[in-house]
Specification:
318 residues; 9 helices; globular
Length: 318
């Protein structure tokens, strides 16, 4: 969707970048975690839509073994697809899920008076979490209860109309929702495995998460599309598992280290935009073009003006 961009580099000069002009810098900047310079402006191509409404199909799935073939089915044509997964359920219910697929609703499809103002955005509910929850509030039992209620509340049904915000950003309907995790907060962990390795790798990741008892009431599984040429781009064809994990200190770091090893063993990678815990060795194995990125950065930013705490932690920059 990015056609071109104007970049202010470490050499204190603007640089026009696109697929045809300074293409190497363009592909270093796409997914480059802000390390190549300031993006002054960008030309972006958008998808035209007729309404702000989504037409959603829900499918309740009893286990991960039942879910993965549905997610990996290349013959499906839905534009958007995401599965909410129960990360607490075990046994035969391990990985039970609600698979949601959606399309942008056309104006002629809209029910009631919706066709009169197809792009009008509905008002969000004025809900907000008023204070930080105590650490004990988020546990296996409370999350298990929430997950069971969520699963039961979403039976299989088709053609449900909802706003795009409710489909794409369901948590944002509740202000300050991060307070549910208490003062210590949480991390987001997102891993991507190829189609070939996901049938073995995703169940192993989920099993490790369930056994850790670090409850997460937000876990989603998505199929990813074609890769671009970005040196540090995350996306490629496969399956990605993303979840929130409460910050409980060392047990969390021990869990993410085990998950990282599983990801690497299955030829996968972590999403840099969410990483908080991994190591330089892991990132070097996940991103084979890392050295190419370092060399280009050294050329366009020789004085290392653009750095971040994450880039130093992961050895992306010295």
């Amino acid at each position: 969707f990015v056609e071109s961009l104007d970049l202010w580099t470490g050499a204190n000069e603007p640089l026009r970048c696109s697929r045809n002009e300074n293409a190497d810098v363009f592909w270093a900047t796409i997914g480059g975690m802000g390390l190549t310079g300031y993006i002054i402006s960008a030309s972006i191509r958008l998808t035209p839509i007729e309404s702000s409404t989504m037409r959603v199909d829900y499918r309740r799935v009893g286990s991960l073994a039942e879910l993965l073939p549905l997610v990996c089915d290349a013959s499906t044509q839905e534009t958007y697809s995401v599965a909410w997964i129960d990360c607490v359920a075990s046994g035969e219910k391990t990985g039970r899920a609600v698979l949601m697929t959606a399309e942008h609703a056309r104006r002629a499809e809209l029910p009631g008076q919706g066709a009169d103002e197809p792009l009008r955005m509905p008002s969000l509910w004025p809900l907000s979490v008023p204070f930080n929850f105590p650490a004990a509030a988020l546990n296996r039992h409370s999350v298990g209860t929430f997950n069971s209620l969520y699963y039961l509340a979403h039976p299989t049904r088709t053609g449900v109309f909802t706003s795009y915000e409710q489909f794409f950003y369901p948590l944002d309907r509740v202000g300050e929702w991060n307070r549910i995790y208490g003062k210590r907060g949480f991390i987001q962990y997102q891993a991507l495995l190829s189609m070939e390795s996901s049938n073995e790798g995703i169940p192993r990741l989920l099993d490790e998460i369930v056994r850790s008892q670090l409850a997460s009431f937000l876990a989603v599984l998505k199929r990813t599309g074609v890769a671009d040429e970005g040196m540090l781009s995350f996306c490629r064809p496969g399956v990605t598992l993303a979840l929130d994990l409460p910050n409980v200190g060392m047990p969390l770091r021990e869990l993410t280290a085990r998950l990282d090893r599983l990801v690497v063993d299955h030829g996968g990678r972590l999403y840099l935009a969410k990483d908080a815990c991994t190591t330089p060795d892991m990132i070097a194995q996940m991103y084979p073009r890392l050295d190419e990125f370092r060399q280009l950065k050294a050329r366009i930013d020789p004085q290392r003006k653009f750095v971040s705490a994450q880039a130093k932690r992961l050895g992306i920059v010295a």
